[in-house]
Amino acid sequence: MIRRLLKRRPRLLPSLLAYQKWAAAYPPHAHNALMRAEESAMLALLPPLDGASVLDLACGTGRYSLLCEQRGAKRVIGLDSSWAMLERSSGRYRAAALMEALPIASTAFDMIVCGLAIGHLRAVQAAFAEMARVLKPGGVCVISDVHPQLFQGGAQRTFEVNGVMFAVEHTVHPIQHVIETAAAVGLTLDALAEPPLLPIDLPANAAAVPVAVIYRFIKSHD
C-alpha cells in the first residue's frame, strides 16, 4: 500500500529484505487500490498473447504470470530476486534472478511484463539492456512503476508485519529518463498511461491524480 509519511516513520528496508518479510501476506493478485489501478492500465496495454512466450520479470508471487496464462500465452517464465516471493507463486516456470543479469538466451521472448519493480533499482540502465537482449525483434515490453509524483510528494510503499510498519526502499526514476534509457537500447515507446485510482477506490471529492505509470515499448528490428 502507499502511505503518506506518518508521525511515526515506518522502518525503511531494502527491497530484498522487505519482500522476505512481506511474502507470507503477499497474494498473487492486486490487493490494494494502487495495484488495481495499475493492473487495469497494464492489461489495457498488453498485446494479444495467444501462443506467445512471455517473461514475467520481477514476478513476485506470480500475479502477471497467471494473467498472461489466462490470456493464452504458450509459455510464461517468472523471474524474481526474492526466493520468499517465488515460493508463494503458483507459476509453473520460475527461478531466482536479478533484473540486471538474466539467465536467459538472447531473443527468447515475444513479450516482457514487469510490474511495479523498476523503482527497486537504483539505476535502470543494466535492466533495460537485459530486457532488450532477451526480447525478440518486434517484441513488446510492458512495464509499470509507482508514479514519480507520489514519492516526490512524500509517499512510501508500506506494509505491516506483527504490528510493525515497514517501507520498501524506492528510487524515483523520472518518466523521461525511463523513456530515454529504453530508447538507448532499442526499445521505442509505443504507449504511455498514467492512471489515477479507479472510480470505486477514489474517495469522495478527491482529485484524480496519477498513481502509476505504464510504459509499452517495442524492440526495433535493427
Please outline what is shown here.
The chain is α/β, with parallel strands linked by helices and 222 residues long. It has helices spanning 15-22, 33-45, 63-70, 83-86, 125-134, 148-152, 175-184, and strands spanning 2-4, 11-13, 53-57, 75-80, 93-96, 109-114, 135-146, 155-161, 164-168, 187-193, 212-219.
Report on this structure.
The protein is of the alpha/beta class and 222 residues long. It has one domain (2-211): Vaccinia Virus protein VP39 (Rossmann fold). 26% of the residues lie in helices and 30% in strands. The protein has helices at residues 15-22, 33-45, 63-70, 83-86, 125-134, 148-152, 175-184, and strands at 2-4, 11-13, 53-57, 75-80, 93-96, 109-114, 135-146, 155-161, 164-168, 187-193, 212-219. Strands 5-4-3-6-7-11-10 form a seven-stranded mixed sheet, sandwiched between helices. It has a four-stranded mixed sheet with strand order 1-8-9-2. It is globular and about 50 Å long. The termini are far apart. 41% of the residues are buried. The model has no long low-confidence stretch (mean pLDDT 93).
